[in-house]
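Chapter summary example.
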Amino acid sequence: MAIHKYHPEDEEEIDIEMPEANKRPEGEDIEVILEDDGGATVELGEEEDEEVPFDANLAEVVDPSEMGYISSELLALFDADKASRGEWEKQYSKGLELLGFSYEERTRPFKGACGTSHPMLTEAIIQFQAQAFKELMPAEGPVKTQVLGKETREKLAKAERVKEFMNYELTCEMVEYTPEFDQLLFFTGYGGSAFKKVYVDPQTDKMVSKLVLPDDLFIPYNGSSVMSKCPRITHRIPMDVNEFRKLVAVGFYRDIDVRPSSSNAADVIQDSINKVTGISPSGDPEELFLLEFNVEWDLRGFEDKDEDGEETGIKLPYVITIEEYSNQVVGIRRNWKKDSEVKQRKEWFVHYPLIEGPGAYGLGFVHLIGGLTKTATSAMRQLIDSGTLANLPAGFKAKGARIANDDVPLQPGEWRDIDVGGAELQSSMLPLPYKEPSQTLFTLMGFCVEAGKRLASIADMQVGDGNQNAAVGTTIALLEKGATIMSAIHKRMHYAQKLEFKLLAAGFGECLPEEYPYDVPGASRKIKRSDFDGSVDVQPVADPNIFSSSQRITLAQTQLQIAQSAPQMHNMYEAYRRVYEALGTKHIDAILTPQNPDMPKDPASENSDVLDGVALKAFAGQQHDAHIMGHLIQGMSPILQSNPLAAVELQKHILEHVKTKAEEDTEAEIFKSYGTDPERLVSDLQREAMIALKVVENLKEVKKVQEELMGDQGDPLVKLKEQELKQNAQRDQQKTQVETQRLQLDQSDKAKQDQIDLQKIQSNEKIANERLMANMQKQGAQNGNQIRQR
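The structure predicted for these 790 residues follows.
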């Protein structure tokens, strides 16, 4: 379109030629606009903005000069971001040598000197990787769900569908997820940071969670470890040329003449990885690099406008992609939700930090124990080298001394001739004063290793070894002492994984069809797009407070020990179930009697469960009247009347149905009267008052039903109370009889004891009298003899 402006003081008209792409077709109407200064503006054709689809590649319609400006500005920012982390890249690449993946052929201090590295750093990384991988990626799947808000049967079913589908996708369909997550944990343990990029694949229209290493993700100097707080994120994407052409074919990127990069020499970290792993670049020319900027930009022609149509000057979030070699913009896409009024940036990246450091990137074991590993490696090499030199000594010999076969090493037990020309052998040979490996150096190496293990918490936890009767507090203290650092690290991993699952769930809600069927072993399932409406929260199945099986088993056994000390105060079923779960036992319900109140059941099943002592629970959305009627009928049965505990539990469950029904009726009345208008919604106090009135009405209905059911039999609750009082009276009477019998028995025992004591006294008196008579007779006999003798 050509705009012709005319001013009276000008000698000729001024033509402003617009870009060819924006010219209007010929034959359109001409519009003349008179200006205040007497001039005029002539426009050929009407100003009608072409409707550009929201998800279109704006690089196809933006002016080429604007894209050139965007490219130069963003590439300058990228160079600044790369330069700001130059020292970080050097430290990251140098630390790879401490892993000991490659053996170094050393010539100093002598040829064949020890070139091995101490495995302390590698041990810390591998142990963290193994523990985290086992906890965060169980075989059944890493996702669990939780209902947000009030639980209903529909929400519970939705949560179950979301959990099954996401676990199926991550473990079966997304075949790259598990190995990439394993690799993510290794790089997180080493350098402290690794990233996941969650997005919809433009070719397959499926969700992808791709591993992004820190050497390919650039965060500005003033950035944050929280991705949503970074003003700019740049992802450097290596891509096969053929893959790029496929994306061009589907309209994702703009078609340009690409030239593959000839080398990747600027990537210091990748060069170090190749050197350590022994891999050399193949020199494949069919590879290019894309710079994908998640940035806020004021794009000309697509400016942010207020309600009056005036430009606000606010930058909007875009994803701008530039081909690194040609510096051409190949993609510009809006990076906010289509229906969003605030146009908040959509997040694609999740940061997995080992330890939060002072900068945007995390701290890894190479930062924590890299120096100690280097020291331990140096000490170990010196000890081995000193032992080598001590076992194979060298030295000086006299110039005239000749040794037979001096090019063949001496073997153990061998004696070889030497010609010293009549001189002493000792004076012709001077060995160097090599020492045996130093005990001090060995102690120093051990100190470095122990310090590194304490810092990285890779020492084995000796919990309960040889002390099975240790107090609960002692066991917990030992666990906390040995797992402080690893527990904090595991919580960070758990938090990052939760963010990743939320992004995946949001993506599934956008890319899935209205109903998506899929097959699993032995069954067919289906998922709905509406299941990902935000009413179900997705979380990692791992416990953020537990990072190892031994810790889980110890805590479960400790809980069971406490529960067994006071079983009347604990749910013993849950205590035993947690022990079985910690042990990894399969089919626990085949061992323990199932007690699952978290799923809705019919009244008959609940009546059966209450007799077995299973806890009952009322759910929103149930047919409460039917449940109440079924439970009242069960309450009239003689079996339940003879079991007061079960009767009380069933009565509490009826009251729970009464309350839930009152809450549902109240919410329905509020919605019918006021709708969802926030200004007309009732307060919490008014809602509680309405619920209370509904509860009273429902209780009256329950009482009426009870009266109809019992007829002349009386109130079953009164009967239960009378039966309870009768049982208490019988129990008191039995107790009185027992006490009376015990008193009578005591009196009988006392009478018998008195009789025995009396008999003992009489017997003693008899014996005493007999002794007295015998003595008297003996004395009389003696007196008679004396008289006769006289």
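To summarize the output: Residues 90-192+354-392+439-460+479-534 form one domain.
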